[in-house]
TrEMBL record:
It comes from Rhodobacter flavimaris. This is 3'-5' exonuclease. The keyword Nuclease applies. Transmembrane segments: none annotated. InterPro entries: Ribonucl_H, RNaseH-like_sf, RNaseH_sf.
Amino acid sequence: MREKSVRSAVPDGSYRFVALDVETACSDTSSICQIGIACVRSDDVIESWVTYVNPRSHFSTFNTRLHGIGPDHVREAPDFSQAIALLEPLLARHLVIQHSGFDRRAIQGAYEELGRSAPNWRWGDSVRIARRAWPEFIGNGGHGLSHLKERLQLDFEHHDAGEDARAAALVVLHAERRTGLSIDALLGR
């Protein structure tokens, strides 16, 4: 499995799937302050992209401690409507993988704040995939990224949207190798 570093431009191509992760400014799931994607090519090379997002809301101390992002980081950043406009064409044509349901809820909430319905993207969940690939982790550390990082020896910085998106992509790739099943089969499609 090979990886590629973070790109300055949004990846534009045909990918097997795109993993997406967000960080939020506070407990309001629509307060997205960072979006990261990891695009997995047919040769399993990962192309990543990340941006800060100005959530136009307050930052809670808890969230800032968790991910290290505060008002100064996002002051000059695009707002959600600007950031997501860059990603919509890519995400509309690919399977979008999240790690748990949080990212999809956050995206839906941010669209609702704009007075728009979220696009009907095809979503998949790398937690579901991990449960299928490593059932022995149920009740034994679970399938969260922190535990999978340790058990699968993944190298990433947790609570950074770009890094967490890449980690979700890596979980899928490891699961495919371990089980011999495709992503679609692992998702039960």
